[in-house]
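Q: For a teaching session next week I want to show students how multiple molecules come together into a single three-dimensional assembly. I've collected the sequence lines for a complex. Could you give me the predicted structure tokens for the whole thing so I can convert them for display?
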Amino acid sequence: MSTAVNGSEATEQLAHGFRDQAAAIVDEVGKLIVGQREIVRDTVVCLIAGGNVLIEGVPGLGKTELVRALGRAIDLRFSRIQFTPDLMPADITGTNVVVDGTDGQRTFRFEPGPVFANLVLADEINRATPKTQAALLEAMQERQVSVAREVHVLDPPFFVMATQNPIEMEGTYPLPEAQVDRFMFKLVVDYPTAGELSEILERTTGAAQPGVAQVATGDDLLAMGAFARRLAIAPHVASYVVDLVKSTHPQDPTAHQLTRQYVRYGCSPRAAQAMVLAAKVYAMLDGRYNVGFDDIRAAARPAMRHRLLLNFEAEADAVPADHILDAILMSTRQAGD
Amino acid sequence: MRVEVSLLKARGVSRPAFRATAYGSDAFEQRLIPLARRWQRHRTLQSAPRVLAVASGLALLVVLVAAGFGLPRLVIALSLCVAMIPVVALMARALVAPPPLSAALAYDRRLAMFERLSTAVAGSRADDHMRDLQRRDALHALAGVNAAFAFPYRLPRGDLALVAVAVAALAIGTLAATTDVLPRIGGQARVSALAESLEAAADGEAPALADPALMAQIDQIRAAMDELERQRDPEAAPAALAAEAAGEALRRTAEGRRLGRALDSGDFQAASGEARALGEQISGMNSTRMDELAEGLREASERVESQDEGLANQFRAAAEALERGQLADARSALAQLAQEIEAVGTTVEADSGLQAQLDQLAQQLADAETLAGANTPGNEGTSLGDAASAAAGDAQAEAGAEAAAGSQGGGDSAASGRALEGTLETLAPEQRLNIDGQLEIVEIKPTEEGAETVERPVLEIGPGGPSGYEASAGDRGFAVGRPDVARNVPLDMLPMLDRYFSEP
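A: Of course. Below is the structure for the complete assembly, covering every listed component.
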């Protein structure tokens, strides 16, 4: 019993440390990013949960700056890849180059690409061709790169934070479904409010530029992620996640009416995993040791919006995925209803 | 996931029990028990008004059905049974301890506790330390729960109004059914059956139906009549006759004519005023008129002596004072006479009210006895005899009679007519059809004026629209009416028609 109490107290200490460190990261990033508190929080949640983030928004809203700030607040090897239509896969993963040996022989040596980092910023990812975009698939899911039949393991932690412009813009290639599914969250950055815009002007056009201090390391992130996974989720809360995901499947008997009308393919199991993991981090940040329905609901839209493949009718009617998800969240019953 | 859901079911869908057997022995679940019971009572209270309203509606339905089948005595028992079933069920539900998970979820939801309690109850696959930490967190949250705030014992006003209306409807329905109002109002079929029975009995084919409700009503009317008879003042009738006799004597004198007329017509208030006026006028009278008035007063005294000695003494005192020429004494005697007349008037008028009520009851009794086909020897002399004066069908007097009879209704008054199938030969001697073809009771009461009972021939009137003339009974105890010249009456019936509607 005594051991158990001691173990519980240690766990409690870890929980307090978790909350303090997460709050410090959010605060540091907040020094550089004006407003967008929810985007910053969700990005940090993804980092802690070990997921990749896709950030969408029109140019100039601070997407890249957000990722750069995160890279500075956390002691991580940071690399940035600017995706362009002529970018090749080898430009991302790296390639074998011929080098002259001291003995006069020439050998192939693997030259790692920018993907060999802890935090990779894939800027404007949808401006590259699908072939190049797919170069990130293996790295994002399996944390490794295969080049010339040789597997190169990426050092943990490894995060891909991609930004993309709305797909309706000129010169963009929609991400393939398989790759989209590998992003834990898709966050949509909106225009700042008038107040936030004034604050941005004040901060960025003056002589002094705000700095971001390093408040965590990659190991801290890994420890926080491991701790969050220990959190309790009750069966009825997990069941709610299942119901939400099933409601997005058009062929399922429990599917929502809007799902049947507008959705071609529903969410994969990765959506459920993403929701539960993110909900656990939300609960930790809130000072709880269990996942609640509200945590699930907070994670539902960023975890599912990019995993809903809408049909032509939805495009014709201009029905966004968020609208369908809102309806699903409204109608799905939770235990105790 | 399937395993987790089954675990959830095992924990949360345990059967409700009066004892909290589903709860664990640790501090958390023991603390949860009173909160769970509070929630259970709260939600029972919330659903109670609607359940009671539905139960009252069902009970009302049962009451109406029972009343329709002529089972008034079962109505209260049935309505109580139907209404008590949900009450007992609600009470039992309030005492049950709900499953722990349901209670935990309810508090999580109501107090926005982010599933702290339900996670602690349902358990999880977290490691021991984390589970312990979570349970401690839940216990801490539970300690701060104010159950009275979360689930107050409060009833929604709208639901209360609903249940009030439902219970009131049930109460009215039960009352109406048990006091035989409903069968009388709505039981037209039974009334028709009784009418047919009466007809058949008159034809000698079958005995009349003995309706228990009707017999009970007859008993109640008789009891009410007995009570009214007890309340009557035995001196009222002689006093009224005495006043009338005195009035007749005084009408012959010039000075006492107005007083005499007032007494003769029964207007005692006016008579009292006239007596006082005479007292003030005597100083202006000459001796001849004074003597004439004294003679009238003395005659009045002699006429009323045998019926009302007090009144006779006052007349005599006034007459003697006038004969002696003592004007002051005469004035005083006339003032006392005025007071005595007032007292007599009060007595007579009170008795008249009782008599009117008795007449109405007699009318109802006669109707009821006709329907029941029952002869009631020993009571006929009073009830049926008095029915003649009630044939006028005064609605206000009828209402008074109903009140005296214990609010037993009276909607079947024969004076208002009743549809009767059959031939005219089946009618009893006291029955006839009015000009609308409705059954009417025409029992005639002999009066002091010597009006005699006239057995009217029955006039068969063909079908047609309602007539502008209504058959009615006069104030002297006989039926009067006017011929309906608009109707097509066979020529050979005209003499009979003329005789029928003529004055006796």
